Amino acid sequence: MAYDPKQIERKWQAVWAEERTWEVANPGQPGYEGSKPKSYVLEMLPYPSGEPHVGHLKCYAVGDAIAHFRRRRGFEVIHPMGFDSFGLPAENNAIKTGEPPREATERSIASFRRQFGEWGISIDWSRQLATHTPEYYRWTQWIFLQLFEKGLAYRTEAPVQWCPKDATVLANEQVVDGRCERCGTEVVQRNLEQWFFRITEYADRLLADFDRLESWPEHVITMQRNWIGRSEGAEVVFRCEEAGLDFPVFTTRPDTLFGATFFVLAPEHPELERLVAGTEAEEAVREYVNRVGRESAEERGAEDREKTGVPLGRTVVNPVNGEEIPMYVADYVLMEYGTGAIMAVPAHDSRDYEFAQRFELPVRRVIEGTDPDVARDAAGLPYAGDGPMTGSGRFDGKGNRDAYAAIVAWLEEEGRGRPAVNFRLRDWLVSRQRYWGAPIPVVYCEGCGEAGTPAIVPVPAEQLPVELPEVEDYAPQGKSPLAAAADWVATECPRCGGPARRETDTMDTFVDSSWYFVRYLDPGNGEAAWDRAVADHWLPVDQYIGGVEHAILHLMYARFFTKALADLGVLDVQEPFANLFAQGMITRDGAKMSKSKGNTVSPGEYVERYGADTARTYVCFMGPPERGGDWTDEGVEGVNRFLSRLWRLCEEVEERTEPGDAGGAEGEARELLAKAHWAVDKATRDFQRGFQFNTVIAAVMELVNDSYRLKDGLFGDPAGGAVLRFATATAASLIFPFAPHLGAEVHQRLTGERVWEQPWPVADPALLASDTVTLVVQVNGKLRDRIEAPAEAGKEELLGLARGSEKVARHLDGKDVVKEIVVPGKLVNLVVR
RNA sequence: GCCGGAGUGGCGGAAUUGGCAUACGCGAUCGACUCAAAAUCGAUUGCCCUGACGGGCUUGUGGGUUCGAGUCCCACCUCCGGCACCA
Fold first, then answer.
1. CA of A630 to C1' of B32 (A)
2. Mean pLDDT over residues A781-791, rounded?
3. C-alpha span between A480 and A469 (Å, rounded)
4. Fewest C-beta atoms under 10 Å: which of A19, A487, A558, A641?
């Protein structure tokens, strides 16, 4: 019978569903396996939109291989799945088609759920969750309230990134090259009241705790580190006497303070208007600020942009030397970073230098040195290197690094500055003026408020969830569509009982996915988000798997949540994911797959045509899974050919051999037996060494190839037959993590056992060593012959064998051997002159 | 500009501690089976010279260390990813 994956796959999927094979119990529940060490294997939960794509296939194929391997290595593996089901695409679809987001989302979840079943992923479905259900978001809201109580969630007016197309604000992390990450529209800045999470409070811990991680890809850590962007320096106060205003600046180079020749404010600086009100400069400044305000972040950040700005007609005093330096407004100073004001040192900063050239401002050098590699002016400026101080009063002659500390110490004494640390990281903006998300659980109460400002009153935990109301129109109009649900908005203040209105913004979906890995552990809990003891048992996630596109956003938010929840006393771990595996992206024809390019690959079609085992094994065989790979149909067919070969081998072996003892095999039977043990050893080592699934699969291919090569000589005798049966069953056992259905089927036919209930095989060391080795003989480092030599042969014996070779002798002829290198068991190198 | 990663046959890739470069797969060529094709099974397949035996060359480039380098060191080139007027 030909290999029929459909039939085999349906059969085993039914067994696993029927027997709930992959479900695991919590401590205290019946069926709990306390004797085994736990292992939490988790893939990032999918966002259910349309159908699963190849990225999903790869992620879950990789994760499932790890889960299967660990189970058979004696771990109690928890391997859950859920759906990140709130979010913009479902809502945009609703606006376009009128279909309520809930319906489209639930249809998509059903489709994902069905396909994951068809892929045969070993999920504990009893723990399934979806973030859009009240049973889930009730606890998302609860966490929000915990953060609010701790002052980690707050509401404030701030300049925010606004996407005009999606009509919502975005987190900084969701703005890519000045455009909305989702729809590509250029974002604009607006001042709005918004909710934030105080992630900046955790910036130092987020950096320091990289040390607590067991194994994360270096580049992911680097990306987060860059994103957090910690800079050490000093805050220095410059005073404008005329206006009676102090302007603190942040600088990483206090050693260059004596070189400051002008001072620049960001166009958004709050004191700017007051500073120029009623002066000659007022008109020009206002015009400049308006012009800058109309520009997009992208235009403003353009690389080759010329410096622009306007003088303010005011001066500030440089605290180190009492010098008055002129003030400017310029858009190269950003309000979001530091204090929105800088001291400009053109001699030692290329941006300040450009500005000084343009506005013909003085350039004063305060550090000596040259920097030959970089294009400089005749004086070697701007110079960013180290060197002795000059023109800096009593600090002259000191190295600039020593002067740095001395100047900061002096500033501190004088009360004009202090050491300071600045982060690029901003607080996490979590409110969205959109419908399809978890409502923010607060109300605004005039009665509880003061002076016309309503009070923010949190909804008490026992009144959660604040359910998302049904609405007719999902289109955003600059405020949340929830505002239209008048009956829902009008409510009672939980504090005073008076009339109040609900917050109509919803939460960013990244909030939902920042804690889901905890809810899996106790998904049915109606009393609490989770039971502390249960969470302590399973956490942290031992192996997290997902796309590198989440390297910053999701992974950093989840780390922040974990730390905040640990501080609240409800979690015991500081880091959620001990080990992270970031899979590479699959391309087609060398390009990222996209519907517009028409180069998408539908996993469903391939599963239909070749079976899930082929599709799963293929994505693991394409190359190292952390790297990307190009999808080719020929490659899929190659894997399918291999699985078919294993299938046909099984049929022939089942028919023509009997189970028996393979122990005393000799000759070719022993050769195949040794190959099987080699494959076990190779597969086990490669599984543990990173996740080199491509070479694990290659080893099984070799075993199957050797079985084909040798089988005709082995069918005759019982020992040979027994070895063939063993080799084929071993191949099935090793391929099982990738092709679980075929692996289970072949293994059961040949051994009568259920492969997933069998421990992972262990190679017999006696069969890994062979009696003879291939001795490589080199002359002057060049390969001249290969000789079969006894494995135990000593130096002298190997040298004798080497010299005895005719091919070698030809190259020794008439020359002196000046050196002999012998690596026992491997090689002889004769050096001649 | 700063940070990270990678360059190996026609293609995807392998090479674990400095010791047989190109495992495994794809593609290609040939053969067996077939009326024929597909499927399958088997053989060959880095490049160059040679009729053959055999020899030379080869891991982005150039140097170095070493008996021996894809692997270590120095300099450079190219590509990919992240960050970027961040003071």
1. 35
2. 83
3. 12
4. A487
Positive/negative CA dihedral, A772, A773, A779, A784: positive
Q: By percentage, how much of chain A surpasses pLDDT 90? A: 67
How many angstroms is C1' of B82 away from CA of A458? Answer: 39
Answer whether residue A373 shows pLDDT above 60.
Answer: no
Give the tens place of pLDDT for each residue, A282-294: 999 999 998 887 7
| Residue A265 to residue A272: CA distance in whole angstroms | 8
What whole-number distance in Å separates Cα of residue A221 and Cα of residue A207? 9
Q: Is A592 helix (H, G, I), strand (E, B) or coil?
A: strand
Q: Residue A33 phi/psi, 5° resolution?
A: -100, 80
Single-letter amino acid, residue A594 = S
* Structural tokens at position A630: 């190009």
Which nucleotides of strand B come closer than 7 angstroms to any CB of the protein? 3-5, 12-16, 19-21, 23-27, 39-43, 55-57, 67-69, 81-87
Alpha carbon distance A630, A619 (integer Å)? 10
Q: Read off the pLDDT of each residue in A4-22 and give the average, rounded to a whole number.
A: 97
**By C-alpha distance, which of A411, A404, A425, A385 is closest to A233?**
A404
**CA A711, C1' B44: Å apart?**
22
Q: CB–CB of A411/A399 below 8 Å? A: no
Residue A81 CA to chain centroid, in angstroms?
18
- Name the residue closest to B55, CA to C1': A784
Mean pLDDT for all residues in chain A: 91
Residue A701, token pair as written in the block: 């291919």
What number of residues does chain A have?
833
d(CA A489, CA A138): 18
Helix axes A54-72, A101-119, angle to 10 degrees: 50
Spatial distance between the Cα atoms of A95 and A112, rounded to a whole number of angstroms? 23
For tokens 């305060």, what's the residue?
A366
Residue A716: C-alpha distances to residues A55, A381, A657, A669 (Å): 47, 86, 9, 11
Please, what's the b/e burial string for A548-574 (b: 16 or more CB within 10 A of its CB; e: otherwise)? Answer: bebbbbbbbbbbbbbbbbebeebbebe
Tokens, residue A651: 């049929």
CA distance A223 to A241: 43
Q: Higher model confidence: residue A97 or residue A64?
A: A64
User: Token pair for residue A530?
Assistant: 């989770």
- The predicted pLDDT at position A375 comes to 59
3-state percent helix, strand, coil for chain A, nearest multiple of 5? 40, 20, 35
Residue A109 vs residues A22, A248, A255, A559: alpha-carbon distances, Å: 20, 53, 59, 27
pLDDT tier at A152, thresholds 50, 70, 90? very high
Compute the distance between CA of residue A12 and CA of residue A445 in angstroms, rounded to an integer.
58
What pTM was estimated for this model as a whole? 0.92
Residue of A352, A351, A350, A344 lying closest to A384 (CA atoms)? A350
The CB density around residue A449, as the number of other CB atoms within 10 Å, is 15
**Closest among A251, A229, A256, A230 to A417, alpha carbons compared:** A251
Q: 3-class DSSP state for residue A41? A: strand
Residue A608 tokens read as: 């239909």
**Residue A299 Cα distances to A77, A425, A789, angstroms:** 51, 22, 72
Name the 3-class secondary structure at A506: strand
As for the ipTM of the complex, it is: 0.95
Q: Which nucleotide is nearest to A831 (CA to C1')?
A: B67
Nucleotide nearest residue A330, measured CA to C1': B85
Please give the full DSSP string across A194-226, using - where no structure is assigned: EEEE-GGGGHHHHHHGGGG-SB--HHHHHHHHH
Task: Note the CA–C1' distance, A302 to B13, in angstroms.
Answer: 40
